[in-house]
User: Which sequence fits this backbone?
């Protein structure tokens, strides 16, 4: 489940003709028929190919014995496709309930299957599906076990069952965390203060784990992270239609701040526009690991990729992150800045910023001290982290500008429909500029105002750490 990358995916499809040229009623019947065929195909694939492999791995049953493998019988398989109304996704993703018999006993397992869609090889490559799935597989098979050692087995994560990484396809199968009371929030954006506090405390705790691994055993840290691939800025070429979206999103930001926050200095806004006008060159520099703050980060810590547990009053108590496809070694502020930009509105973020930031820092420091038995290094003090947060604000605000509207007013298209949905440049511009209306405009303007105020207050230029000579002039 991706966020900023998701819109990029919509703009990289090669065949965009089918849905647009087909009558709406025919499309509905086609989708129903396709879904039924998909369920049958996936059930057969699970039953005959995948489940025997998971059984043989020992992950399906704790009491598995090869001598009793012939007693394994697959029964009913339910498949429930996760649609766009629940989450914005690029992949084929579904929940499945599997009933089976082993050694005379009946069992049931609930899983989530995530697969790459059927796309041409050039599209598969342009979206970097191989790198995205490779990172996630690396997390569950290599990195998570080490984190669990540091966390005494208390790091919340779905159970890993199976994965494949092929030249033009990939799959990851995990446990269904809903079975244990976890769920994604009903709201796509604008989470409450309570949700924000739980999220940033957990994030601080996670970064405390990863710093502890790095500082106690640097060689082990390098070994764990050496195979992670750049999954967002590896390609220099941007699809032309995505470029249209990016340019339109910059114009929307300019109009929004001029309309709703006109006090923001014009030269400051121009500097922001200059930085983000080439999202690849700027983004590649911004997320590059820089010492001493670099550590292991989620890379896409947003509402779509976290699940909460609630008490009987529906107050959030715990949180668990998932979808580790954009895992990277970078500044921890990539996670904090993007979460606060994409998942929290200004009425919560701006009003309570200091206490939210304190929550993150306190959790980070407590986690670090607990797992290293050492004091927190000076370069991780609150002031230094806040300055780093400010450096990442152009990055997070640029994501808000080009993607928030999709969360506020989603298109409702599945990944399959996205591939077949043809859209002219004019339509792309219109959708980017207008979708979400005043709510989105005000939020973008507020984020620019917050960036301006923090930059001035703490004397941190937003281009700090960026080689501006390497960026194209506009």
Assistant:
């Amino acid at each position: 489940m991706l966020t900023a990358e998701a819109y990029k995916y919509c703009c990289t499809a090669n065949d965009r003709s089918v849905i647009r040229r087909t009558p709406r009623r025919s499309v509905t019947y086609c989708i129903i028929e396709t879904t039924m065929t998909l369920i049958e195909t996936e059930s057969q694939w699970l039953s005959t190919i995948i489940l025997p492999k998971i059984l043989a791995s020992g992950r399906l049953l704790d009491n598995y014995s090869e001598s009793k493998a012939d007693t394994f019988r697959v029964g009913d398989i339910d498949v429930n496709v996760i649609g766009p109304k629940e989450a914005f996704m690029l992949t084929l993703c579904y929940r499945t309930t599997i009933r089976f018999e082993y050694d005379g006993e009946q069992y049931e397992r609930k899983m989530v299957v995530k697969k790459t869609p059927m796309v041409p090889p050039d599209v598969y490559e342009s979206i970097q599906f191989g790198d995205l799935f490779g990172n996630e597989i690396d997390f569950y098979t290599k990195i998570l076990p080490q984190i669990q050692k540091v966390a005494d087995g208390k790091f919340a994560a779905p159970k890993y069952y199976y994965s494949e990484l092929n030249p033009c396809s990939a799959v990851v199968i995990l446990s269904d965390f809903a079975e244990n009371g976890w769920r994604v929030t009903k709201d796509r954006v604008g989470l409450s203060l309570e949700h924000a506090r739980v999220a940033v405390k957990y994030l601080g705790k996670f970064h405390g784990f990863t710093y502890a691994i790095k500082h106690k055993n640097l060689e082990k840290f390098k070994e764990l992270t050496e195979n992670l691939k750049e999954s967002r800025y590896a390609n220099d070429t941007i699809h032309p239609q995505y470029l249209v979206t990016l340019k339109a999103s910059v114009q929307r930001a300019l109009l929004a701040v001029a309309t709703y926050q006109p006090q923001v200095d014009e030269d400051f806004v121009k500097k922001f526009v200059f930085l983000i006008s080439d999202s690849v060159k700027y983004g590649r520099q911004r997320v590059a690991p820089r010492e001493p703050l670099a550590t292991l980060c989620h890379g896409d810590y947003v509402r779509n990729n976290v699940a909460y547990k609630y008490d009987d009053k529906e107050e959030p108590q715990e949180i668990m992150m998932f979808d580790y496809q954009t895992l990277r070694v970078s500044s921890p502020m990539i996670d904090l800045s993007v979460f606060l930009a994409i998942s929290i509105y200004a009425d919560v973020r701006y009003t309570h910023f200091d206490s939210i930031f304190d929550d993150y820092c306190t959790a980070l420091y407590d986690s670090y001290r607990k797992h290293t038995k050492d004091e927190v290094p000076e370069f991780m003090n609150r002031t230094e982290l806040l300055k780093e947060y400010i450096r990442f604000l152009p990055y997070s605000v640029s994501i808000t500008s080009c993607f928030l509207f999709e969360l506020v007013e989603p298109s409702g298209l599945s990944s399959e429909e996205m591939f077949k949905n043809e859209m002219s440049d004019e339509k792309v511009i219109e959708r980017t500029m207008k979708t979400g209306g005043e709510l989105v405009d005000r939020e973008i303007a507020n984020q620019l105002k917050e960036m301006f105020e923090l930059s001035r207050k703490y004397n941190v230029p937003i281009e700090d750490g960026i080689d501006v000579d390497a960026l194209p002039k506009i």
In short: DSSP finds 17 helices and nine strands in the chain. Residues 187-470 form one domain. Residues 1-33 have pLDDT under 50 and may be disordered. The longest helix spans residues 24-57.
